[in-house]
TrEMBL record:
<dbReference type="InterPro" id="IPR019888">
    <property type="entry name" value="Tscrpt_reg_AsnC-like"/>
</dbReference>
<dbReference type="GO" id="GO:0043200">
    <property type="term" value="P:response to amino acid"/>
</dbReference>
<keyword id="KW-0805">Transcription regulation</keyword>
<dbReference type="Pfam" id="PF01037">
    <property type="entry name" value="AsnC_trans_reg"/>
</dbReference>
<keyword id="KW-0238">DNA-binding</keyword>
<protein>
    <submittedName>
        <fullName>Transcriptional regulator, AsnC family</fullName>
    </submittedName>
</protein>
<dbReference type="InterPro" id="IPR036390">
    <property type="entry name" value="WH_DNA-bd_sf"/>
</dbReference>
<feature type="domain" description="HTH asnC-type">
    <location>
        <begin position="14"/>
        <end position="75"/>
    </location>
</feature>
<dbReference type="InterPro" id="IPR000485">
    <property type="entry name" value="AsnC-type_HTH_dom"/>
</dbReference>
<dbReference type="InterPro" id="IPR011991">
    <property type="entry name" value="ArsR-like_HTH"/>
</dbReference>
<dbReference type="InterPro" id="IPR019887">
    <property type="entry name" value="Tscrpt_reg_AsnC/Lrp_C"/>
</dbReference>
<keyword id="KW-0804">Transcription</keyword>
<dbReference type="GO" id="GO:0005829">
    <property type="term" value="C:cytosol"/>
</dbReference>
<dbReference type="Pfam" id="PF13412">
    <property type="entry name" value="HTH_24"/>
</dbReference>
<dbReference type="InterPro" id="IPR011008">
    <property type="entry name" value="Dimeric_a/b-barrel"/>
</dbReference>
<dbReference type="GO" id="GO:0006355">
    <property type="term" value="P:regulation of DNA-templated transcription"/>
</dbReference>
<dbReference type="GO" id="GO:0043565">
    <property type="term" value="F:sequence-specific DNA binding"/>
</dbReference>
Amino acid sequence: MSRHTPSAEPAVTFDETDRKILDVLQRDSDLPISVIAEQVGLSTTPIWRRIKRMEAAGLIRARVVVVDQKLANVPMTVFIGITAPRHEMEWLERFRALIDEIPEVVEAYRLTGSTDYIMKVVVPDIATYDTVYQRMIASLDFSQINSSISMEELKFTTAVPTKYL
């Protein structure tokens, strides 16, 4: 006998039409519903309902503006690899709190392998990066910090593949 208890709510499924809507929205979430409907091949009401359903299910988390990094005067991207001095929850919580307070840290991930964490930092120049670096090392212990400055962005997208839905 299985001990698995089915959830009260059935799993939400998504179809090819949902994928098409997501693909359009990921290119430009500011499009009017009528334009999305035209591109997908449905009328506006079903498109609106599907978008609302995907939002309610958490598939669509937010609609945001993507700001040009250079025009925002933060043209330098630095990737920082961090090795933690110890693997304890207290350290991780302090690390999370620290990076939440630093607006230049725009992405951060916990990893497998020899590097424990990687962060993406955007700054106007090396002096500003050094200020971020100094703030970090003054606030928390690290075993190792390795920084790499991006020379060129080869690909950037916020779109995720929808073919796996």
